[in-house]
Amino acid sequence: MGHRNTFTLPSAPTEIADLYPESDGKPMAETERHFRELLKNFNRIENHLAHIPDAYVLGDMMMYYEEGNPRKSISPDIFVAFGIGRKERRIYKIWEEGKPPDFVLEFASKGTYRKDLTRKVELYAAIGIPEYFVYDVDRRYLPRPLMGFRLIGDTYVEIAPLATGGIPAVTLGLEFHLLDDSLGIYDPESADWVKTAAEAAETRAKQEADARKQAESEVARLQAELERLKARR
Predict the structure, then answer these.
(1) What percentage of the chain exceeds 70 in pLDDT?
(2) pLDDT grade, residue 100 (50/70/90)?
(3) CA torsion angle for 153, 155, 156, 162 (degrees, to 10)?
(4) Span 168-202, pLDDT tens digits
(5) Are the C-beta atoms of 60 and 91 separated by less than 8 Å?
(6) Residues 179, 87 share a domain
(7) Alpha carbon 34 to chain centroid, angstroms
(8) What letter would DSSP give residue 77?
(9) Does residue 70 sit within a domain?
(10) Residue 212's domain spans which residues?
(11) Is 97 exposed, middle or buried (0-12, 13-18, 19+ CB in 10 A)?
């Protein structure tokens, strides 16, 4: 008979830190469309803030806001926190980080929109998150498909849209816009739309290709002009 290998699994940790789960068991997004919009705009914000060393951008992470009470938690779709560094985190404990996030963006859906405009508005204000934005991907459930709130004192006040229709997020220095079928993020400083790393690379490649075509066209024009001058001699 062959020898059977046996393995002893380590026992589960019992430290107090492990009382704070890393997941709430809920899916990251309700539909494929929600997931794609969430991921695309997460990547845009992350790429835009990549040059700021202490800007931490993440989403779908368990956030605990009351020490010793694991039930006091929420998992924002996207959040940004400045000044806490970019070390890898498994969960976000506000009392350990020393501050709440500066910005939260939620993607409303049929299953979440009521909480997005009630419980989350109250909770994020109580936690002290300076700005909270919510986008209705399906444009069916919220009073307005895109809404932004800014903390004034201890209460959220809805942010009025700009003349361009965008809603400014002063914490990020960006504007959020409703496009035809998606959410757009505009950087007024660079006067350009915020892009993912892949979108930025695609834009650069197109610009370089256009520049090459323009250069080739100019060379061809100069050669033709040179030939014309030679023919007149």
Answers:
(1) 86
(2) very high
(3) -40
(4) 999 999 999 999 989 999 999 999 999 998 887 87
(5) no
(6) yes
(7) 13
(8) S
(9) yes
(10) 196-233
(11) middle
Query: Are 48 and 127 in a shared domain?
Result: yes
**At 162, which helix (H) or strand (E)?**
none
Burial 177-210 (b: 16+ CB within 10 A, else e): bbeeeebbbbeeeeeeebbbeeeeeeeeeeeeee
For the entire predicted model, the pTM comes to 0.80
In a domain, 2, yes or no: no
Helix axes 32-48, 197-232, angle to 10 degrees: 70
Residue-wise pLDDT tens digits, 125-148: 999 999 999 999 999 999 999 999
Tokens of 7: 């393995």
Q: Are residues 96 and 131 in the same domain?
A: yes
d(CA 185, CA 99): 25
What does the mean pLDDT of the chain come to?
87
